[in-house]
């Protein structure tokens, strides 16, 4: 499957947000439902416990003492309260001070805890039931001691009330969830409107139009637009570099290639051996110059490409200077001078691309060897910034080159230089947040890579 097909198969943002909202509502709904069930059970228990206490109180108030014995006249009001749960069965038991059952069901369980009012769960036959124990104390001559009134009720009404409360809560929750989902959809639709506008703007563009997108958008989408503009800027930079390379190659190579071709044809037709040798030497000189020009053009393109793609690492500028110094081999530059190396004892660290920095140093040294005067020195020094410098006894480049060091094919190209040395060094310095500096000093001229230190 192609990458484009994979992108088409992914869920849309609306679907993802909708699924996330549904998941949140489902989890929240489950939690609320559990809470509603617990609340319903608690509310039903408290409501019917009050009925039990009311019925037990009515029964306790109806107890009288006659002839030294407790008499119970079961009040109708107690049964009217318990009749509010018509489907439930009722059990009661009155226990005297001696533990004897005065009236009621002997099977009604007694509480395990002590107290004037005690609620507890028990059984009523094969059914679960809820009981209350209420104590009325007597202190008369003929009768004294506590009389315990026990009233119980099965749980059907409680269960139905708890279910009704939970069901009503679930209905309210469903309505609230539907309303929240609707408003969330409206908000999401409004929030995502800038994305279709950006897509439409891109589809309407000419394929070669890499200018920044200028559309108002929320901050989150604006970050995406900024990243897209940054990507298009880098792409435009690469395309401009490629166009410049093609244009420079077409412009700079056509003339020397034509000259070499014409001279080779003349040399082939020249009968005089001495003149033919001079023509061959001239062809060789032009071929060497053309080779150097090609090397510089390709190096310039490589440096610009690596500025955006090469990973950065800690580099000791002393190693860069040593590599440029060791590249000063016979035939590497147009002229050969003795080059001296001046390095500090401590490392001078920068963060950058070793290959690009070395290429810049080689070009600065090549310019000094080709256009300057001996002695030539290359070295490194450290202060607030890291400096890789090349010094010679010459006067330095013309003023127009000093003003525009990044200009390609500037200066005299007749001495074996392609006019790209300073342009390459300038591109490397700029890609490393630095610059090229020029100074007339000590009766000579210094060109230097001025870079920020790291460590």
UniProtKB/TrEMBL annotation:
The record lists the organism as Martelella mediterranea DSM 17316
This protein's name? histidine kinase
Alphabetical GO CC annotations of the entry are:
plasma membrane
Q: Which residues form the Histidine kinase domain?
A: 248-455
Cross-referenced SUPFAM superfamilies: ATPase domain of HSP90 chaperone/DNA topoisomerase II/histidine kinase, Homodimeric domain of signal transducing histidine kinase
**Gene Ontology molecular function: any one:** phosphorelay sensor kinase activity
**Might you give the EC number(s) for this enzyme?**
2.7.13.3
Entry-linked InterPro entries: 2CSK_N (IPR013727), HATPase_C_sf (IPR036890), HATPase_dom (IPR003594), His_kinase_dom (IPR005467), HisK_dim/P_dom (IPR003661), HisK_dim/P_sf (IPR036097), TCS_sensor_his_kinase (IPR050428)
Reaction(s) catalysed (UniProt annotation): ATP + protein L-histidine = ADP + protein N-phospho-L-histidine
Keywords (A to Z) from UniProt? Kinase, Membrane, Phosphoprotein, Transferase, Transmembrane, Transmembrane helix
Q: Which gene encodes it?
A: qseC
Transmembrane stretches in the record are 17-40, 165-188
Coiled-coil positions are none
